[in-house]
Design brief:
The chain is an alpha/beta fold. It has three helices and eleven strands, in the order ββαβββαβββββαβ.
């Protein structure tokens, strides 16, 4: 482990042969300069209107906000959230409104969970793909808000 190399999760890392990296200032220049077309990140909560909460839980220590706020605010960037459908204990993570501090407002375009894939657009939250081992009732029960179901709902696909 190289104490001078730190990843986005604030963990020390070691470069192996063939690896490459760039500085934080170059990273933010790429983001703020509009050179990132797709951002894929995790979330603690997503609201049906695309609001995102992924950086802190009040009362818990955080190492810093990182670059998520810049990533989701970058013009022209598609934001995809990949996460478990529910939190520990079964609490909803896809909600009417986020209860945690927001990382970005109306910034999420797609949510991918183990249960399905949702689009978020001007029509609202729409289930477009569903896991072959789940059913619509289970997805509704695990989701903390109403959502539309695509007319051509498909099984989840590998790309």
């Amino acid at each position: 482990v190289d104490p001078d190399l730190i990843n986005a999760g604030k963990q020390t890392v070691t470069a192996i042969p063939g690896s490459s990296y760039f500085s934080s200032d170059e990273s933010f220049a790429m983001i703020r300069g509009g050179h990132v077309q797709l951002t894929i990140l995790g979330a603690m909560q997503v609201a049906k209107n695309g609001d995102l909460a992924n950086w802190m839980i009040p009362g818990k220590m955080v190492k810093g906000m990182g670059g998520a706020m810049d990533l989701v605010a970058a013009a022209g960037t598609k934001v995809v959230v990949t996460m478990e459908h529910t939190a520990k204990g079964g609490a909803h993570k896809i909600l009417e409104n986020c209860s945690l501090p927001l990382t970005g407002k109306g910034c999420v375009d797609m949510i991918i969970t183990e249960m399905g894939v949702f689009n978020i657009d001007d029509k609202g939250l729409t289930l477009i793909e569903i896991d072959a081992d789940t059913n619509l009732e289970a997805v509704r029960a695990a989701t903390g808000c109403e959502f539309n179901v695509a007319d051509d709902l498909k099984p989840m696909q590998q790309i």
